[in-house]
């Protein structure tokens, strides 16, 4: 691993430690021993104790693929763990106007907080600002708003980090093979998240003297994944490694590969679906790894919204307020560590 790659992974690791703080506030964590005392309720071990009732509105896009469905499911499950949370879930929608209307309804209901994964961050920015101006705590999930005034805290996956992690893994597997052919099956090319993933992948490969020799784009669906992979396999008579951005579209990718009968390469997935992890664990597939894009972001948003409304902090940090931005880590899952990640994986 190059110095630059190592530095990137270390920085990403610090981010995930920050997140772990909001998900590990157990009584055993540590005791408040005096000195610079934390705010009321923020002492370690206190955060999970019942506090004031918190009404949280949650809105996300339609669950039209496994990852998005897992976001909503995990959010609802997390809210049920806390007797002081009342979660109001709006129906998932890819209609921007309808999602804006949902947030307007939350404002009229005078909820304490809104956890919002916008279908379009820019389009939902004005109504999120309106909610904040109404005194409602907004937690922005995954797709960023255009204004820093639209949310108190933002929880992000690491799309660039996904590409870096995938590229670093490919470099490790192809070490010493300077003429290796690396292919990439991206998601929707017009999306910034796809562009970030591709940029991270390209830069990680450059660190070890490799490049993307063949690239196609799909649309995060099974059907588009199968079409894109079939086109790639037809255009590239030799491939050593493929990185597929998304495990949902990867169902189609793997179908196209099976139909081709080709086996000279290995495949790295993206997002971290349970079916891919099971294939990795079984060891009888071309799938050797996948890069996590957490489907826990909405659940983490609910936890943070509760802490913010109850004026608590992350008990494992010295900082006395919840951070403005938390970026989740993008680890590589292999046969060696798959059991660690399977419990929170989503079904494609």
TrEMBL record:
Ranges where the record places region Disordered: 26-54
Amino acid composition bias (Low complexity), ranges on this chain: 34-45
Pfam family, one: Peripla_BP_4
One cellular-component annotation, GO: cell envelope
Alphabetical UniProt keywords: Signal
PROSITE patterns for this protein: PROKAR_LIPOPROTEIN (PS51257)
Domain of life from the UniProt record: Bacteria
Localization (cell): Cell envelope
Family: Belongs to the bacterial solute-binding protein 2 family.
Signal peptide feature range: 1-20
Stated name of the protein: Sugar ABC transporter substrate-binding protein
Example GO molecular function: carbohydrate binding
């Amino acid at each position: 691993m190059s110095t630059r790659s190592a530095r990137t992974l270390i920085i990403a690791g610090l981010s995930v430690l920050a997140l772990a703080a909001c998900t590990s506030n157990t009584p055993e964590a540590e005791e408040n021993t005096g000195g610079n005392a934390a705010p009321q309720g923020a002492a370690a071990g206190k955060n999970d104790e019942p506090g004031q009732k918190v009404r949280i509105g949650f809105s996300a896009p339609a669950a039209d693929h496994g990852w998005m469905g897992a976001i909503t499911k995990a959010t609802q499950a997390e809210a049920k763990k806390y007797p002081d949370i009342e979660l109001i879930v709006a129906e998932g929608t890819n209609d921007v106007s309808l999602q804006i209307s949902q947030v307007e309804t939350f404002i009229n209901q005078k909820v304490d907080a809104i956890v919002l994964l916008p279908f379009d961050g820019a389009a939902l920015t004005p109504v999120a600002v309106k909610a904040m101006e109404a005194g409602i705590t907004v937690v922005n999930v995954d797709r960023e708003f255009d204004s820093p005034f639209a949310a108190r805290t933002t929880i992000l996956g690491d799309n660039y980090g996904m590409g870096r992690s995938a590229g670093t893994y490919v470099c490790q597997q192809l070490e010493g093979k300077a003429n290796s052919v690396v292919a990439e099956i991206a998601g929707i090319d017009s999306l910034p998240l796809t562009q970030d993933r591709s940029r991270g992948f390209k830069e990680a490969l450059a660190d070890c003297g490799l490049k993307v020799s063949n690239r196609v784009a799909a649309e995060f669906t099974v059907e588009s994944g199968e079409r894109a992979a079939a086109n790639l396999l037809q255009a590239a008579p030799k491939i050593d490694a493929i990185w597929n951005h998304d495990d949902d579209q990867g169902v189609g990718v793997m179908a196209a590969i099976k139909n081709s009968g080709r086996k000279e390469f290995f495949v790295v997935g993206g997002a971290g679906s349970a079916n891919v992890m099971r294939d990795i664990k079984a060891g009888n597939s071309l799938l050797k790894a996948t890069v996590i894009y957490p489907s826990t972001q909405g659940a983490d948003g609910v936890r943070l919204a509760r802490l913010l409304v109850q004026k608590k902090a992350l008990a494992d940090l010295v900082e006395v307020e919840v951070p403005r931005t938390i970026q989740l880590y993008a680890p590589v899952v292999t046969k060696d560590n798959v059991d660690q990640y399977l419990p929170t994986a989503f079904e494609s």
